[in-house]
Design a protein that fits this description.
The chain is an alpha+beta fold. The protein has one domain. The chain is 22% helix and 27% strand. The chain is built from four helices and eight strands; from the N terminus they run αββαββββαβαβ. Strands 1, 2, 3, 4, 5, 6, 7 and 8 form an eight-stranded mixed β-sheet that branches. The chain is globular and about 40 Å long.
Length: 167
Protein backbone atom coordinates (compact mmCIF):
# COMPACT_ATOMS: atom_id res chain seq x y z
CA UNK A 1 0.00 0.00 0.00
CA UNK A 2 1.57 3.27 -1.06
CA UNK A 3 -1.22 5.73 -0.28
CA UNK A 4 -3.85 6.02 2.38
CA UNK A 5 -6.39 7.91 0.25
CA UNK A 6 -7.70 4.64 -1.23
CA UNK A 7 -9.45 3.90 2.06
CA UNK A 8 -10.10 7.46 3.19
CA UNK A 9 -13.17 9.66 2.87
CA UNK A 10 -13.29 13.45 2.95
CA UNK A 11 -10.93 15.27 5.30
CA UNK A 12 -12.77 15.53 8.64
CA UNK A 13 -13.93 18.86 9.99
CA UNK A 14 -13.54 20.44 13.42
CA UNK A 15 -15.96 18.03 15.12
CA UNK A 16 -13.58 15.13 14.54
CA UNK A 17 -10.38 17.17 14.85
CA UNK A 18 -11.43 18.39 18.31
CA UNK A 19 -11.40 14.78 19.55
CA UNK A 20 -7.88 13.85 18.48
CA UNK A 21 -4.98 13.62 20.89
CA UNK A 22 -1.87 15.56 19.90
CA UNK A 23 1.62 15.35 21.37
CA UNK A 24 4.84 17.06 20.37
CA UNK A 25 8.40 16.48 21.51
CA UNK A 26 12.04 16.63 20.47
CA UNK A 27 13.89 13.36 20.13
CA UNK A 28 17.68 13.11 20.00
CA UNK A 29 19.14 11.11 17.14
CA UNK A 30 22.62 10.71 15.63
CA UNK A 31 21.56 13.23 12.95
CA UNK A 32 20.44 15.76 15.58
CA UNK A 33 17.20 16.58 17.31
CA UNK A 34 14.03 15.57 15.49
CA UNK A 35 10.76 17.38 16.19
CA UNK A 36 7.81 14.99 16.38
CA UNK A 37 4.08 15.62 16.14
CA UNK A 38 1.91 12.63 17.04
CA UNK A 39 -1.82 12.55 16.30
CA UNK A 40 -4.11 9.81 17.51
CA UNK A 41 -7.56 9.30 18.95
CA UNK A 42 -8.74 7.76 22.20
CA UNK A 43 -11.02 4.71 22.10
CA UNK A 44 -14.69 5.46 21.28
CA UNK A 45 -16.32 7.51 24.02
CA UNK A 46 -19.27 9.27 22.36
CA UNK A 47 -22.44 7.51 21.15
CA UNK A 48 -21.67 8.28 17.48
CA UNK A 49 -18.11 6.93 17.65
CA UNK A 50 -16.99 3.41 16.82
CA UNK A 51 -13.49 2.06 16.29
CA UNK A 52 -14.31 1.95 12.57
CA UNK A 53 -15.50 5.59 12.32
CA UNK A 54 -12.49 6.81 14.29
CA UNK A 55 -10.06 4.92 12.06
CA UNK A 56 -11.82 6.25 8.94
CA UNK A 57 -11.47 9.80 10.29
CA UNK A 58 -7.77 9.30 11.08
CA UNK A 59 -7.13 7.79 7.64
CA UNK A 60 -8.90 10.75 5.99
CA UNK A 61 -6.90 13.20 8.11
CA UNK A 62 -3.67 11.41 7.09
CA UNK A 63 -4.72 11.36 3.43
CA UNK A 64 -5.39 15.10 3.59
CA UNK A 65 -1.72 15.55 4.51
CA UNK A 66 -0.47 12.91 2.01
CA UNK A 67 1.07 10.75 4.76
CA UNK A 68 2.33 7.26 3.94
CA UNK A 69 2.70 4.11 6.04
CA UNK A 70 5.77 4.36 8.28
CA UNK A 71 7.26 1.20 6.74
CA UNK A 72 7.73 3.18 3.49
CA UNK A 73 9.84 6.27 2.82
CA UNK A 74 8.96 9.42 4.75
CA UNK A 75 7.34 11.78 2.22
CA UNK A 76 7.79 15.53 2.27
CA UNK A 77 4.22 16.78 2.70
CA UNK A 78 4.97 20.49 2.29
CA UNK A 79 4.86 23.41 4.69
CA UNK A 80 1.91 22.64 6.97
CA UNK A 81 2.71 24.38 10.26
CA UNK A 82 1.94 27.97 11.20
CA UNK A 83 3.53 29.54 14.26
CA UNK A 84 2.48 32.82 15.85
CA UNK A 85 4.16 33.32 19.21
CA UNK A 86 3.26 30.33 21.38
CA UNK A 87 0.40 29.26 19.07
CA UNK A 88 1.06 26.52 16.53
CA UNK A 89 -1.52 25.27 14.03
CA UNK A 90 -1.38 22.40 11.54
CA UNK A 91 -2.93 22.53 8.07
CA UNK A 92 -4.29 19.00 7.96
CA UNK A 93 -5.80 19.35 4.51
CA UNK A 94 -9.25 20.73 5.33
CA UNK A 95 -10.26 23.66 3.15
CA UNK A 96 -11.48 25.84 6.03
CA UNK A 97 -9.99 24.66 9.31
CA UNK A 98 -6.61 24.19 10.97
CA UNK A 99 -5.74 21.99 13.95
CA UNK A 100 -4.35 24.04 16.83
CA UNK A 101 -1.65 22.13 18.67
CA UNK A 102 -1.76 22.04 22.47
CA UNK A 103 1.21 24.16 23.61
CA UNK A 104 4.33 22.69 22.00
CA UNK A 105 7.37 23.52 24.11
CA UNK A 106 9.53 26.58 23.45
CA UNK A 107 12.47 24.48 22.17
CA UNK A 108 10.19 22.61 19.77
CA UNK A 109 8.71 25.87 18.44
CA UNK A 110 12.12 27.53 18.07
CA UNK A 111 13.56 24.54 16.20
CA UNK A 112 10.63 24.54 13.80
CA UNK A 113 10.76 28.33 13.32
CA UNK A 114 14.42 27.96 12.31
CA UNK A 115 13.39 25.58 9.51
CA UNK A 116 13.64 22.27 11.34
CA UNK A 117 11.71 19.35 9.93
CA UNK A 118 8.79 17.89 11.86
CA UNK A 119 7.87 14.24 11.61
CA UNK A 120 4.07 14.31 11.64
CA UNK A 121 2.71 10.91 12.61
CA UNK A 122 -0.84 9.58 12.72
CA UNK A 123 -1.39 6.37 14.66
CA UNK A 124 -4.54 4.39 13.81
CA UNK A 125 -4.63 2.35 17.01
CA UNK A 126 -6.27 3.92 20.10
CA UNK A 127 -4.15 6.52 21.85
CA UNK A 128 -5.48 7.92 25.09
CA UNK A 129 -4.75 11.51 26.16
CA UNK A 130 -2.69 10.45 29.19
CA UNK A 131 -0.50 7.88 27.41
CA UNK A 132 3.11 8.09 28.62
CA UNK A 133 6.17 8.24 26.37
CA UNK A 134 7.10 4.61 27.03
CA UNK A 135 3.62 3.43 26.03
CA UNK A 136 3.71 5.66 22.93
CA UNK A 137 7.08 4.17 21.92
CA UNK A 138 5.71 0.64 22.37
CA UNK A 139 2.55 1.48 20.39
CA UNK A 140 4.59 2.91 17.52
CA UNK A 141 6.98 -0.09 17.47
CA UNK A 142 4.01 -2.48 17.44
CA UNK A 143 1.83 -0.58 14.94
CA UNK A 144 4.33 0.76 12.38
CA UNK A 145 5.41 -2.58 10.86
CA UNK A 146 1.78 -3.52 10.16
CA UNK A 147 0.85 -0.26 8.42
CA UNK A 148 -1.04 1.35 11.31
CA UNK A 149 1.26 4.37 11.58
CA UNK A 150 1.19 7.01 8.83
CA UNK A 151 4.01 9.52 8.55
CA UNK A 152 5.33 12.55 6.69
CA UNK A 153 7.86 15.34 7.03
CA UNK A 154 6.69 18.94 7.26
CA UNK A 155 7.96 22.32 8.39
CA UNK A 156 6.69 25.80 9.19
CA UNK A 157 5.28 28.13 6.58
CA UNK A 158 7.02 31.46 6.40
CA UNK A 159 4.37 34.10 6.83
CA UNK A 160 4.56 37.85 7.09
CA UNK A 161 2.65 40.14 9.42
CA UNK A 162 0.71 43.22 8.29
CA UNK A 163 3.96 45.25 8.29
CA UNK A 164 5.68 42.83 5.91
CA UNK A 165 7.95 41.30 8.57
CA UNK A 166 8.45 37.61 9.13
CA UNK A 167 5.90 36.45 11.69
Amino acid sequence: MTSVDVEAGPVPGPGFAAGVTVSSWLDASPAGDIAWLLIGHPPPRRPVETARTIEAGLRALAAGMRLLPAAERVPDVGDRLMIRGPVVALDYGHGEYLLRLPAPGREWRERVKRGGQVCVTVVLDPLGPATGQGDVDALLRRSAPIGRVLIGSTRARHTRDAGGHDA
